[in-house]
Q: What sequence folds into this?
């Protein structure tokens, strides 16, 4: 895990992973007006791919659950709650930057909903319109 992502100054050229981080931050920013209190102590991070423990094994992988786009971990002890978004599976699914932005937003909404014990439509009322 690369660790928490934070806003940065905009350099002349941004790497693909930096642009992806920006999409995650944009998605979080869109949720903050409504959920700022609940998200204040949540860390958001990006990982390239899900860990093997989330993918299943052998033939089950081919016919089992789809590859996850993210995960949410509740706070535990001194560790804050974390929402992780997986970059490579989302990039592989997107046909262009606009689609990638929408997929990232939906992944963030789904993981925040999971963390808060709510439906994605409660976290973002426009969620069901896109799915």
A:
């Amino acid at each position: 895990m690369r660790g928490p992502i934070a806003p940065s100054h905009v350099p002349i050229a941004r790497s693909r992973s930096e642009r992806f981080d920006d999409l995650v931050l944009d998605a979080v920013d869109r949720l903050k007006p409504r959920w700022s209190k609940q998200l204040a102590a949540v860390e958001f991070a990006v990982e390239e791919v899900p860990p093997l423990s989330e993918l299943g094994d052998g033939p089950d992988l081919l016919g089992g659950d789809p590859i996850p786009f993210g995960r949410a971990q509740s706070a535990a002890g001194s560790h804050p709650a974390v929402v992780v978004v997986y970059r490579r599976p989302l990039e592989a699914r997107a046909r262009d930057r606009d689609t990638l932005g929408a997929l990232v937003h939906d992944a963030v909404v789904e993981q925040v909903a999971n963390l808060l014990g709510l439906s994605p439509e409660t976290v973002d009322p426009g969620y069901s319109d896109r799915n």
About this structure: The mean pLDDT is 86. The CA atoms of residues 41 and 80 lie 6 Å apart. Strands lie at 43-47, 70-73, 82-86. Helices lie at 16-39, 59-63, 87-93, 97-116, 120-123, 127-130.
